[in-house]
Amino acid sequence: MLIVAKSMCDIQNLKILLSGEFDMKDLAAAKKILGMVIYRDRTQKRLFLSQKDYIQKILVRFGMADSKPISTPFSEKEKLSAMIKVQAQAD
Q1: pLDDT tens figures, 31-78
Q2: What is the pLDDT of residue 91?
């Protein structure tokens, strides 16, 4: 189980409540969950998730690990436009 809260006090209180109901171990701060790596910048109070390892695994699986990276998979020359399809109501 991953516990996230704005304050450590809230986390500690929840851990106390849970440990009263369940046998549990505190594994300290999570570094990885569901294949995502967790990065923290405590000074700026920011949390980042990275799926770099998962993406690399998928690239290897499909034989694209040596592909040339680009900033966007869409041509810069292409122009997008909104297309609205309105279906006429039958009377």
Answers
A1: 998 889 999 898 998 889 999 998 899 999 999 999 887 776 667 777
A2: 44
> Residue 59: CB partners within 8 Å, gap ≥ 6?
65, 67
Instruction: Say if 57 falls within a structural domain.
Output: yes
pTM above 0.90, yes or no: no
- Starting at the edge strand found earlier in the chain, the sheet holding 32-33 runs 32-33, 36-41, 46-50
The DSSP secondary structure of 36-72, one letter per residue, reads EEEEEETTTTEEEEE-HHHHHHHHHHTT-TTSPP-S-
Domain annotation covers residue 32:
yes
Task: Please indicate, yes or no, if residue 79 is contained in any of the structural domains.
Answer: no
In a domain, 9, yes or no: no
Q: How many structural domains are present in the chain?
A: 1
CA distance 49 to 69: 21
pLDDT at 83 (0 to 100): 64
